Amino acid sequence: MKSFQYLEINDWPIRRFLLFIATIQLYVLFLPLVEELLSPIAAVRSAIGLLYVLTVPGLLIIRIMRIHEIGLVRLAMFSLGLSVASIYVAGLTITAAYPWLGFDKPFSREDLVVTLAAMVLLLSALCYLRDRDYSNVRKTTQIEEDGDHATWVFGIGALLVILSITASLMVNRFSNYYLMYLLYFIVALTPAIVLRHKLTDELGLVVVFSVSLSLLFSVSLISAHITGYDINVEYYYSALVVNSGTWNPQVGVDANGVLSVVVLPSTISLVSGMNLVNVYKIVYPIIFSLTLPGLYLVWRMWLNPRFAALGCLLIAFAFPFYSLMPQLGRVEIAEFLFVALLLAAFNGKLKRLNLNTMLVIFGLSLVVSHYTTSYIVLTIFFLAWVVARSANRSTIGGVISGNYVALLATATLAWYSYVSRSINFKNLVDSLNQSFSDLTSFGSFDRSGLIIVATEQPLSHEVTKYFSLLVLFLIISGLTYELTRKADRRIRGAYFAISEGTAIFSVVIMMASYILATTMGARVYGFILFVLAPYFVIGAVEAIRFVRGVAKVVTLDHPSKRKWKASIAVIASFLSVFFLFNSGLVYEIVNENPTSIALGGSFDYPIFGYAEVTAAEWFGVHKNAQKTVYADEFRRLLLYDYISRDDVSIISTSQSGIEPSSISGAYVYLGKYNIESGMILPRGTGSTSEPETPINRTSFYPSLVAASVIFSNGEATIYA
What we know:
Number of helices: 31
Strand content: under 5%
Shape: globular
Helix content: 55-70%
Distance between the termini: 61 Å
Radius of gyration: 26 Å
Low-confidence stretches: 139-149, 438-452, 553-559, 654-658, 685-689
């Protein structure tokens, strides 16, 4: 972007660049000496630490590869991705080598800082040797630098993010959802921006970034702790590394086997001084929000700005993006790396050696970031390779070459056969067995994923379902249209082969009820949109053209301006309505089984207010170390941050046979939902779809009534 060329520090003169790196490095090294001075402005202290951890290693590697003039978005994506890979390498190195050298706690701040400093010093020396002769002759050739700078656009984007933060705090502090309603209404109107007479890349990138970040923050920030179930489990194992100073790869839990949980957040927290909770609530959503600008640039290789922007907004408006992803930190990092991989593969400006290097780095980093995402990517790339081979097509950058697919397959098998006692690999085998059983039973309607389509729901939910089906239909239509064009196909080469592989994968998933019956189905749906979203816009334009009967007048290449603009307006309007339903805002207004955790859904969920967190903090200080604490499935996640996991027991249903008959000599922690609804969530559910148990029907209820209240603040009560 012309307005921010000075931020593209990979194009700075080498001396100024290395001076900047050295300044940040010295700050991190001497942070303990200036920590007291900077304590009043902790946000600045953490921001500098984050800049060091998440950008400095990647920037140095970019300059070692002599990559210049790639634009700010590509620079951010590549530097972040390469920095994450560098942190992974550092984490694995200290885990394997430091205990042999006598360092019992390699994941201490001192050891990490020294390790990273040595790595930065080495990279800086290589950077100077490789790139000292670079002459900064700026040529504004990047597609994202076209057009005039519109200050008001950046202002509106910033205000949208600020509104999201404020609305989340209002929900958290005062249970007031009016600002959140306003935020969602404004977001629903953003597709209208693509109707501008001249939609520049600068404007398109700002819109998709501000919309994605504001929606992600609207979920991640509504809890005083961490929002969601899986991410609380991830947080527990990250905190285990931070508190113990070590990582044991052989702990038999799936979350313990991915570096996006045990290495990345721990390193960020220890080096920057940022609270680990805020790493998951703030840093991870910011990283993930860059995926849509990255995809925008990938699609701009073939499509115009309006097509690319509308495709990104479709992803942002689909509930898996903003509702599920903020609760899945490891998936956020893995999908970010996937987009970085695509951006490198379809960049068109990288030399062959640099391209292959980035593909290997991003691919291997993705593998160790999340098991399921790596399985999906590997499957799609394999199918794409088969399709390309069978059609005798050429590939772009070797992203779907046989050697690359084999590399990812070998790395995936090797890694997940080793870490966490191979539990991730065993889970994969079990899932494949169940899915194969579903596929062989596809003749029975209730065994296929199609039963989801036939399930009756309230009217507003039915409308949402058919909106989603229409999106899938238009994606299929767009892909089919591109498939039939051949010679004048808009999306070409390896990306089209990847699209075909994704479509085949989607069909298989639709047949597997085992996957669709779980939240995994929603995650897969969200990932599929990352590849196929541009075909929705193509399919919609062609469908509108067909309905209007003007196929000979309006084409994708030479449209009649008036009818072309009308078609874009119809698609933009559809996306606005799609978001109002898909976000759950309409459900809240008509009061039909509200499902949005950001808009005040009345169901139980791992969302904790400040009063509940305050009670847990107080309890962690005043608890008798000899007594057990009983809490239900969700509340125990909060207690793990303040009390040893061994001291917390989950209240169980009577069917399990281990419900406490009395709480004599123990504690019971009840949160806001327990108090207001009189219900508890029993052991092992991990989902609000399981039946809850009334507290007054449990066997320990009489002793609970007789117990003393040792703490109560209106939203949390502790009995003893």
